[in-house]
Design goal:
The protein has one domain: Porin (Beta Barrel). An eight-stranded antiparallel beta barrel has the order 1-2-3-4-5-6-7-8. The longest helix has 20 residues, at 2-21. With 181 residues, the protein is mainly beta. The protein has one helix spanning 2-21, and strands spanning 41-50, 54-66, 71-85, 90-105, 110-122, 130-145, 150-159, 172-179.
């Protein structure tokens, strides 16, 4: 009886050993390759133009860093040209500024977005006076993927610190692009 138990144990051991030794390399769990710093950088921004009684142009590039697959942050600069003219009023200004932003990806296409934007512009009610406008904004976004790591971004934001100098009204709709995301 002891010999039978020994042979069965020996056979099971050898079968397990040879099976483990003969495993295909695709069966072994692999860790995803580590991404280097350049692979975690993304670029994007907004470009916009409008003509009519109000003429508006916006160039707002940004650069960001993906800390994880879900969390990213970035910085951007903003230049906007604004001109309003009717029979009673003629106002023109150049707007300069910047922003810091953070995003949390719920899925590959939907994300939460928060940002603080600082703008400097000419005050419409005090000629030759420039004012600083800070805006704390939050909202959600959607990426329509174009390839593996780029896409068109649509945002709906709410400005929690809106003033009469803020250049846009709530809610704020933005459309832009991103590469490297």
């Amino acid at each position: 009886m002891h010999k039978l138990i020994f042979y069965i144990s020996f056979t099971l051991f050898c079968t397990g050993f040879f099976h483990a030794a003969a495993q295909d390399s695709s069966m072994i769990r692999k860790h995803p390759p580590k991404k280097n710093f350049r692979d975690k950088i993304f670029f994007g921004g907004n470009l916009g133009i409008q003509f009519g009684t109000s003429t508006f142009a916006d160039i707002s590039p940004l650069v960001g860093y993906k800390f994880t697959e879900k969390i990213s942050a970035g910085v951007g600069v903003t230049y906007q040209y604004y001109h309003y003219q009717d029979q009673y009023f003629d106002f023109e200004t150049n707007v300069y500024g910047g922003r810091v932003l953070a995003r949390y990806n719920f899925t590959q296409t939907f994300f939460a977005h928060g940002e603080y934007e600082y703008l400097n512009m000419e005050a419409f009610d005090f000629p030759d006076t420039r004012v600083d406008v800070g805006s704390l904004m939050g909202g959600v976004g959607y990426i329509q993927r174009i390839g593996d790591n780029s896409g068109i971004v649509a945002l709906v934001l709410y400005n929690f610190t809106e003033t009469h100098y803020t250049p846009y009204q709530n809610p704020i709709f933005r459309v832009g692009f991103v590469v490297g995301m």
